[in-house]
Amino acid sequence: MIEVSHLTKRYGEHVAVSDLCFTIDKGKITGFLGPNGAGKSTTMNILTGCLGASEGEVRIGGHDIFEEPMEAKRLIGYLPEQPPVYPDMTPREYLRFVGKAKGVPNRELSEQMDRSARRAGISEVMDRLIRNLSKGYRQRVGIAQALLGNPQVIILDEPTVGLDPAQIIEIRDLIRALGRDHTVILSSHILSEVSAVCDSVLIIAKGRLVASDTPENLEKLSAGDARLEIELLCDAPRARRALAAMPGAQNMQTEQEGDICRVLLPVDPSPDVRAMIFRACVTADTPIVGMQLHRASLEDVFLELTQDNEEVAGT
């Protein structure tokens, strides 16, 4: 659905995006991640046709965004980080204005406005001034305008920034629903949000692509950091004897807290060794008080891939 090939954007001597290549399949929700100044906003502005490129090619649904801008842009709905809403309009007035600007035929406009409002959850506030709406509802109005014109691609830049926890959950549910009918690109600094809703993840740093995979596979990049925390009702020497045959036992760490020995055991999360540990402790007559597997998170992978890249300005 989206093909980016050798995309480069320069501002004088500064290179904001450098030889960026990736594809996004139809019907997928893709997280777009990177530290501040990595080139995310520049890339999204190029994808939406708001900014030209120094080199490279971007195709949306087979249309070149530079050679066929009108055809490509008809396939895109875009919500910038700051929703482009007019506070003195009502959502109904605003959606009508945006629909006309997008070239939605008059005979379809009212139906599309109603459908977009229902999907974004703003039907009950359509006749209130936007200035009187909460930030969560203003975000929803912004999403509703992105849906006008029945675009195949929805690009959302930080759609939950500044929202309260309840509003964040609502917007996440809405994004999941959008993913059933659209190709969605989600830019967010909330990495748990990306893990929760995205099928795949792109990570860029200093304008270059450093990772492209599913959240699950990216987390496996740091699988060596996975560890099992075990609490045993015994002393440290007995704990070490009970677990001596376990994979990674040579690197286990123990800490005594009263009658409880807390063991940190490096493990490969696949296959799961917890059943093996349970049987070993039963054989050694060493009661298990607690056991918890700590896996690498997307945050861990993100930091690992980007921490060596200096922050650059210009995006």
Describe this structure in words.
This protein has 315 residues and is an alpha/beta fold. The chain has 11 helices and 14 strands. The longest helix has 15 residues, at 106-120. The protein starts with a strand and ends in a 9-residue tail after the last helix. Residues 310-315 have low confidence and may be disordered.
Taking the alpha carbons of the first and last residues, their distance comes to 25 Å
What number is the mean pLDDT? Answer: 89
Identify low-pLDDT runs.
310-315
Rg, Cα atoms, Å:
25 Å
**Which structural class best describes the helix and strand composition?**
alpha/beta
Any idea what the shape is?
A: elongated
- Strand order, main sheet: write it out: 6-7-8-3-9-10
Number of strands: 14
Assembly annotation: single chain
Considering DSSP H and I runs of 4 or more, what fraction of the residues is helical? Answer: 25-40%
Tally of DSSP helical segments: 11
Q: How would you spell out the order of helices and strands?
A: EEEHEEHEHHHEHEHEEHEHEEHEH
The biggest beta sheet is recorded as: 6 strands, mixed
Domain ABC transporter: 2-231
Protein name: ABC transporter ATP-binding protein
GO molecular function, one term: ATP binding
Domain Cyclic nucleotide-binding: 199-244
